[in-house]
Every structure is written in C-alpha cells, then in structure tokens.
Amino acid sequence: MSTPKTLSLVDELRAIEKATEGALLLLDGVGARTIEADQEAAARAVLAIVVSRLRQVGQAIRGTLDPEALWSGHNAVTGAGFKGDDPDVRLQAQRRR
Q: pTM of this prediction?
C-alpha cells in the first residue's frame, strides 16, 4: 500500500497569496490610468481561481474534501521538515479502502 499524499497548508496558502498579489499587480493603478480589458479579465480569472481554491482548502480542513484533490507539486510534503522550520499544518489524503 502506498503512502497517502500529504500537503503543506503553509505552502498552499503561500501560492494563493502570490496569485492574489499577481491579480493586484494587474489591477494596479485602477483609477489613475485605464487598464486594458485583457488585464482586467485576467485579474478576474485569477481571483475566481483564488476564491475556488480557498473554498476547497476550507473543505479539506473540515474533512468534507479529500486533501488529495488539492495535492500538487507546490504544496507537496516530501519529508519531515527541518528543525527550526515554521510550524505547518499538514493535510494527509484519506486512505482508500
């Protein structure tokens, strides 16, 4: 039996933070200048993904979504971590029966 996939909530939230910052950069200066329609559309798309991902993270924390659905290279836990690392919350995929 293989080991269930484990994800780092800290790394997942960091990726969501970066996506949000990217959307803000696309919208930077709204009011001071006119942004291109494609910039606005791109920012809206990124924010829609952020909202969806946050909803999924909440479901995984509550146990209504298997964390494996969120697992990806950017949040994969590959070891036990190192002494002195920031505290992290780790979500482990549910074992399949």
A: 0.78
